[in-house]
């Protein structure tokens, strides 16, 4: 028992100490990207794993965050911290506007509706040239800085991003164990029963949606400050699908699921990018998609509940698929 | 009168699922809705709880109209329900199901829930303790940490009732609570419902409206009965009156005979 409770603090400390021993920029950029995606997927995880609503449009919120930072800092001389706050708020406002009508849709139609939103935003980035710079995007974004301190290196960004990831882990854990967390899970299980318990399901779904958009916006703003330029390409439909993939592969409704999912998908992508040209000379991105699909299928066959159930779970320990089928007599 | 229904009518397409139904339920009594399958009983429930809007008619609770309220608002007004085909939160524990039933008793919102503040901890602990006490009353406290889906069917029915009681409602609508129970469980249920009627609530005992097919249970626990057929009222009265009513007998059996 004792070794178990020491494990997590030790693991976290070791992880945070990485920059002191490693000196590999490539590795850092991977870890930063995983961290950014983990932020998005943590939000998406609340929406999908708890409120039970899917969204294929979160790359749009991610992009809105990035472009908000880009436009505010390069065109309006906005202080970086303020721009980052705006990057969080703008997607939240958009989510509040489209959320009500969109969340009235169910299942497939909700997936399509959110997908439509994502494509709309992506097209906007590409086409509204005066505003967004079109396909070439906007460059020259300043470093994120506050009171003289500037996040101008990979190491600093690594700590910034992962500090946020850890804070969110704690916050989301608290949320799940709370009355609101139970209400969210209730909505996923049975919306009718949740209503009869006095839960305003429409409002709570909307809040979960807005929350996930806020987090995607945060990640987007940080991303813009990290790469220092933005273009439409990371914010397309394929990324929106990847976020859902990360959430599902990591395990919906699990504590570490978002991190594991983000890590797996990113690392897998890197691995394939390196390995495929070796195996198939001259192969390009299209093969990556095939292998991705294959791995996803295998995972869904052998471990449909995702990887996150290997560790701690936020739901009751018995909250794995199989219980739902077993207990019911009809 | 706690609940008053007048002229309630609901059509689905061209079919009148409920037509001009009216009844009144005094506080601290058990009122039963009976009738053949498809008679419109669950529709009446859905209309009361706000899941459906009536085409015409009125529903008032404690003197105030319920029309136009959303289901969660009806719950906040003091009316909860159980479901014919069980709508438990299967992946949540037994305790969590009841705690969720007490949602209205808490007040911490989305944002504040992300912080482990002492006030929130206290609120959660209180709700947890009250939920355990409620589970003890229905005999499920031993199963508190099991997933709800793992319970045997009879206990799942009890759990749903416990969940419906968790918010301290004035009126509970029970949709076929005896369905699928064996005879021992059914007898226990009847005893339990009568006990609930006597239990202490802010004013009198708990008021219940029951939809039920098990005639023994109905005759045993109901103070008044309304018989529906094809969405319309056939008869109203005490159990004795209903049992003797030839219209009721004909609706159920289609011939002259006696209900046991």
Question: What's the quick description here?
Answer:
The complex is a heterodimer of chains A (330) and B (260). Chain A is mainly alpha-helical. Chain A is built from 14 helices and 2 strands.
Question: What would you say this structure looks like, in words?
Answer:
Chain A is mainly α. Chain A has 14 helices and two strands. Chain A has a single domain, classed as Orthogonal Bundle (ABC transporter involved in vitamin B12 uptake, BtuC), CATH 1.10.3470. Chain A has helices at 2-21, 25-50, 58-75, 80-103, 107-127, 129-132, 154-176, 179-189, 191-196, 201-227, 237-250, 257-279, 285-302, 323-327; strands at residues 144-146, 149-151. Chain A has a two-stranded antiparallel ribbon with strand order 1-2. Chain A is globular. Chain B has 260 residues and is α/β, with parallel strands linked by helices. Helices cover 36% and strands 23% of the residues of chain B. Chain B is built from nine helices and ten strands. Chain B has helices at residues 41-48, 71-77, 94-101, 118-138, 153-165, 183-198, 215-221, 239-244, 246-253; strands at 3-12, 15-25, 30-34, 56-61, 64-65, 79-81, 171-175, 207-211, 224-229, 232-237. In chain B, the strands form two sheets. A six-stranded mixed β-sheet of chain B has the order 6-7-8-3-9-10, sandwiched between helices. Chains A and B meet through helix 7, helix 8, helix 9, helix 10 and helix 14 of A and helix 2, helix 3, helix 4 and helix 5 of B.
